[in-house]
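Minutes, project check-in
Item: structure for the 178-residue chain
Input as provided by the requester:
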Amino acid sequence: MAHGECAEHGHYGRGELNDKRWMVLQTKPRSEKQLARMLRARGVAHFLPQGASRRKTQRRWVTSYRPLFPGYLFLYGEAEDFSASLMTNKVVNALPVQDPVQLHQELYRIHELLTLGVNLSAEPVLVEGDPVEIVSGSLAGLRGKVVRLDGQSRVILGVKMINQGVSILVEEWMLRRV
């Protein structure tokens, strides 16, 4: 089962956005749920999509809900709501939203899937040319750029002086954008 905390579900309507706007908040590490609870207590609309994770501890199964996008919470409000979020001391940055309509549509899709009970898992969206670091396996620590060949991800390790490079076939889960 998937889960998403959403205060004021009404703002997910398919119609026009009202005078409130979306803000993307970067939180302190592992503070997303605390911030969501504080905002909910103050009546501030927000969205924190979460995915279920089941594990067995001793003799029983435990389900916990973890943010799909660690370090981020989506706030829907006015300047006063943003100020309220800053007063929690859980926010480290606010990202500018270049296309609020697109963000609204993307969050709406995620909200709909969570409402239907679809189990979601976050995946990094790496674009060709993104600088990345390999974070797993024997090649951990190597940095390069992502390219796609025959539908597979490869990391290019370049030698700038001669404008040449080599590529390594990797799985995307092994990469972190830098």
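Outcome recorded: The chain has two domains: 3-115, 131-177.
No further action items on this chain.
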